[in-house]
Amino acid sequence: MKKSSTSTRNSDKQNDIIGSDLYDCSQTVSYKVKNRIWIIVFSVLAVLCLGAWLFISNISSPSKIVEIYQNGSLVEKIDLNSVTNEREITLSGEHGTNIILISNGHIKMKSADCPDKLCVKHGELKNSYSPIVCLPNKVVIKFENSSDGVDAKAGAVR
Amino acid sequence: MKTNKPANSTLKQNFTAPKPNGQIDIPRTKKLILTAMLTAFALVAFVIEASIPPLTPIYGIKLGLANVFTLFALYSLGTHCAAAVMSLRIVLGSIFTGQLVSFIYSVSGSLLSFLLMILLKRFFQLKQLWVLSILSAVTHNIGQLAAAIFMTQTPAIAYYLPVLILSGIIAGAFTGLCAQLVLIRLSKINNNLD
Amino acid sequence: MTINAYGSKSENAVKAAQNEINELDKLLSVQNKDSEIYKLNYKKSMTVSKDTHSLITRSKELYTLTDGAFDISCEPVSREWGFYSGLENKVPSKEAIENALEGVGADHIKTEDNTVTLDENTSLDLGAVAKGYASQKATEILKENGVTSALMSLGGNVRAVGTKPDGELWSVAVADPNDTSKSIGTLKISDKAVVTSGSYQRYFEENGQIYHHIIDTKTGYPANSGLKSVTVVSDDDTLADALSTALFVKGLEKSKELYSKNSLLFGAVFITDDNKIYVTDNLNDSFISTQSYEVIDK
Q1: Fold of B25-49+58-193
Q2: Which partners does chain A have (≥3 C-beta pairs < 8 Å)?
Q3: What is the pLDDT averaged over residues C79-99?
Q4: Do A10 and B99 touch (CB under 8 A)?
Q5: Who is most buried in B164, B188, C146, C282, counting CB within 10 A?
Q6: Interface predicted TM-score (ipTM) of this complex, two decimals
Q7: Choice among B93-102, C30-39, C211-220 with the minimum mean pLDDT
Q8: Where are the domains of chain A?
Q9: How far is CA C153 from CA A31, B39, B66, C181, in A?
Q10: CB–CB of A154 and C151 under 8 A?
Q11: What are the DSSP calls for B13-25, one per residue?
């Protein structure tokens, strides 16, 4: 008895692992279908995300005013267009120092002591959607984005 | 009971293969050992992955190989063991790679991901482990992103969401398939030995 | 005080502007014992600096323009109400107010060459116009130093120099009198001063009644004109500052009259006690709000 049942099961070895069920033929169809549905869902989602990402990363910001934050507080606000000489800003955090390089129209992380150095690999700051972030040292370089688009408030309580 | 067994059935005496749904029915002590082994594998995977230079400048895009073992444990040994594998891997992994800062991000991502896993596990059989894996990878990334936004106080980071979802889908599919294929192959040993 | 100036020469310009504002504050602040105004109020007649002289002269002009609603000789009355540091806010007696009102009025102020003479019971407080004057001077300095794009905020008085660096208009929110953390609308402007006066800015309560700091110098009491706040937009900061107080005292109807005669000089946004918003037609295109408002025609 045991041997005969073994031989039946052996033949199923040939079946595709994904989408096949070992015992019930009617279940095979629904698994295949289910899997196909998920494949389509994820493929569509992936394509949408890819599109969104390409679109976003290619926008370049019209404003050239950047803000450098550390630990959530503003360290400095710079108009990149008004920079005549190249200069550097050094910030120190929990994971060593970050050196920011500022030149006319450009800003980037020149070097960092953090473990992954993703902030350095980011390259230049291009738009508001992709800020330069050094998570370990909590440094963020981004374009200025006035809250609610308001630059000042008249009538603040004196 | 003593019966005539074919030669290759000696394997069965010392090894209990997974059932077709992935579950391994062994006593608690043996589960403990298996859990420890999986944790060790997960740690190794984590440390190796951490020492490879990152693919892209974007934080949080990685393969997440350690998750293979968490998923494996989830389907074969159950929720508690999977929780152990995951949490120990996070804690020890952060210590071994010397990055306590990323610990916070790891925890938030993994917490969210694990919650999702245990909630939705019942809807995804072994054959669809890969789907659950994608979902858990994506939520892991979302959890990390949320933590990063909170820690740096910059909501602008949220624009990374599309890339993180995309990489979650790809990585999740890969790791999920790994765990799934291994578990299914192992579950067939039972059939070949009878 | 914040000054955000953009451009390559902005750093020096900002420093110079800040200096000017600090100097003017020392000169004009009625509460500063070293200021010319403080000394003038004591001596009643003295030689004053150019800035003080021109501001007092201008203030007299504005007194006439606003039919006395803007009056820098309100110091004795404000003093009775306790609106200076070191004094306690209180509701003064009728007699005290009548006494204080005796020296009130621009005709009690005489300006010659470089001297100012006050009548015996006249004292000056330039608080309603000093910030405007300061921002005007600061703007001149910024422009002299080559700044073409800047935004200043002096204690709630906003001044925009030029447009934003990218050419866009500046967005200035108008505070909601009922909740200053919110706004009732936004003004899109360039090269303008925006000044708001409101009863919500300074006030005290006595016996369940609220008394605010904008005194109607005709009655000696806080102006009760049906308005909660007035925001004035103008090229002339001093005018904007003075008018924000004057229009508040005058009330909506009289302000409309003044507007129809001077619509080229300023625009305004009014918020009444029952929270209705009125906007002069020359600001209709610049004012953006989620709430409905009525337009005031010339």
Answers
A1: Arp2/3 complex 21 kDa subunit ARPC3 (1.10.1760)
A2: B, C
A3: 92
A4: no
A5: B164
A6: 0.82
A7: B93-102
A8: 2-58, 65-145
A9: 66, 59, 54, 16
A10: no
A11: HH--PPPTTS---
